[in-house]
Design goal:
7-stranded mixed sheet; binds S-adenosylmethionine; globular; alpha/beta; 7 strands; 226 residues; Rossmann fold
């Protein structure tokens, strides 16, 4: 199935809103670390429901904000959720960004980068469109060290890049970024039931759920353009 078909279906069944609710638990902490100043241009790579840009406009008075997504129905839903003239949502592909060189100040991406079939090409595209000093905040929940996320690949026909922390850093550097920061942000908000309630529909053991959310949560890698 193509990115378009898969994620159009997610948008049609309301999964974009579900992701927004769950991802917000850790996304808000990562977004708060972004050095976005008033008037600066921000790209959201794989924007989904578009929530991150709405938050950056409200809290940081960001300038032109563009959310890019390969699913027209995600883009349509995101557009319906804002009347802010400085926010736009466009259909596009991670590997061929429709922006001029040095035209973006910061890029945000949550739970999307690992869908890039050629991740280095995507990183080089980001390196091209970001201005010197610009940042790429790349947040993922699916990564090698977080063992209990690996099975997600079985539920989707699109290949997902299962990188470890070091692979993220190496790829960022290979594409021409400095790595300014790498960290895991635990999800402390999701409710973890007491031991006697396991197994649940989703989790075999309480330990597995704790490992997924509290120990690992979201891996954030921050690249800076020299
Ligand atoms: C799991 S969703 C995450 C959405 C949002 N960032 C969030 O935090 O809820 C991943 C998004 O990336 C988009 N995507 C995946 N591969 C893509 C590609 N190659 N080009 C453009 N968008 C892509 C999908 O359409 C989907 O909306």
């Amino acid at each position: 199935m193509s990115v378009r078909d898969e994620f159009d279906q997610w948008a049609r069944t309301g999964k974009d809103r579900g992701m927004e609710e769950r991802h917000w638990h850790t996304a808000k902490h990562a977004l708060a670390r972004m050095p976005v100043e008033a008037g600066e241009a921000v790209l959201d790579l794989g924007t989904g429901s578009g929530y991150a840009l709405r938050a950056l406009r409200e809290t940081r008075n960001a300038g032109r904000c563009v959310g890019l997504d390969g699913s027209p129905e995600m883009v349509q839903n995101a557009r319906e959720d804002t009347d802010d003239d400085l926010i736009s949502y466009v259909c596009g592909d991670f590997h061929d960004l429709p922006f001029a060189d040095d035209s973006i100040d910061h890029c945000w991406s949550m739970e999307a980068f690992y869908y890039a079939q050629e991740p280095l090409k995507t990183l080089r595209e980001l390196r091209r469109v970001l201005r010197p000093g610009g940042t790429f905040f790349c947040a993922v929940n699916f990564f090698e060290e977080s063992k209990h996320t690996h099975e997600w690949q079985d539920r989707i026909s699109i290949d997902m890049q299962l990188w470890n922390r070091a692979q993220y850093r190496e790829a960022f550097r290979e594409a021409g970024f400095h790595v300014a920061e790498q960290d895991t942000i635990p999800d402390r908000e999701i409710e973890i039931p007491p031991a006697e309630e396991f197994p649940t529909d989703e989790w075999e053991t309480r330990e597995a759920m704790v490992d997924r959310y509290r120990t690992y949560g979201t891996l954030l890698t921050v690249g800076v353009v020299p």
